[in-house]
Amino acid sequence: MNPIKLLLADDQDLIRESLHIVLDMDPELQVAGLAENGQTAVRLCEEHQPDVVLMDIHMPVLDGVEATRQIKSRWPHIRVIILTTFQEITYVVDALGAGAEGYLLKAIHPKDLAAGIKWVHRGGTLIPQDIARMLVKEAQSGKPDSTPAEETARSDAYGLSEREAQVLQCIANGLSNKEIAEKLFLSEGTVKNYISSIYSKMDVKDRIQASKKAHQEGLL
User: Fold this and answer.
1) Which residue from 15, 59, 36, 42 is spatially nearest to 188, judged by alpha carbons?
2) CATH code of the domain in which 111 resides
3) Quick check: is 15 in a domain?
4) What is the mean pLDDT of the chain?
5) Which of 68, 82, 91, 126 is geometrically suited to a Cys-Cys bond with 103, CB 3.0 to 4.6 A?
């Protein structure tokens, strides 16, 4: 039986190399490529067609959520596991929404990680219990001042994605591109792309107009 081909995407050299060494020790796994950012991960998927990608979230050039979205749209058969230190609901929702089959924290034991990769390769999904509980809790607790349907309707008026709505909120709060990038764990280039898309969809020319329109029409 052929080993499972892996692609490791992480901007930290130490983590990439450590994972490479640990996972290559398992005869059922083979590391086919290493990527230091999401853009390289997408390119290496085209070159190597891995079975499973271990994807970090916080990376320069292209973050892990957007890289996952691009990979899953082009190669739906490639399985993606988000491997990160950020145990925050926003990133879980974004990553799973982008098509990831699993989400694990970097503190996981190497044996459990290897078992998780094999499980996902066989068609399973990986969501740790504590994160699953957070997802359920998040789904059950709507904001008291508006229903999810109302919130969706407001964003849908301009066709804003969930991430664009988050960037718009940051703009309205007066954050710079650099601050938005740090807050949402995106590259500044990705933030600029989101802002251009927001301006286009909302038919505004600058941050002031976008913020004013967002406040006036209850998008925040």
Assistant:
1) 59
2) 3.40.50.2300
3) yes
4) 85
5) 82
Q: What is the pLDDT of residues 63-97, one digit of tens each?
A: 999 999 999 999 999 999 998 876 666 677 788 88
| Cα–Cα distance for residue pair 218/101, rounded to 1 Å | 34
Same domain for 94 and 186, yes or no, is no
Whether residue 50 is found in the same domain as residue 132: yes
**Cα 100 to Cα 115: distance, rounded to the nearest angstrom:** 17
Residue among 43, 95, 90, 87 nearest 66 (CA): 95
Residue in the structure block whose two tokens are 């901007």: 11
Q: Does residue 151 carry a pLDDT above 80? A: no
Q: Which domain range does residue 184 map to? A: 148-216
User: Read out DSSP for 28-48?
Assistant: TEEEEEEESSHHHHHHHHHHH
